[in-house]
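Before the break, one more example. Copy the sequence into your notebook; we will annotate it together after we see the structure.
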Amino acid sequence: MAQTPEPTDVETEDDYIHVRYRDPDDFDTIRTPDWADNASDSVSEGSEVRTGKREDSDDWEVQSVLIKKSVGEEKAREQADEIVQKIEE
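Here is what the structure looks like once it is written out:
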């Protein structure tokens, strides 16, 4: 299995801290799938995972993780890394 990616950007927007792992422009389609809720909510209640699918692939990869703003940026990054690890490994 591929190595878990490092976040490329962390920014606070509205109600969430957006932890980006891959550029959204690299994907043909981006979705927030229900199946990722179990992994994300087990780490951080109310979090969301956006996944992307490249045009030439059938695989979905984590594009970004949204964590509730109330946890703070440092904790959000830690939780997002744990979520990505659960999903991609």
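The helical segments are 35-43, 73-88. The first strand starts at residue 9 and ends at 13. Try to locate both features in your own notes.
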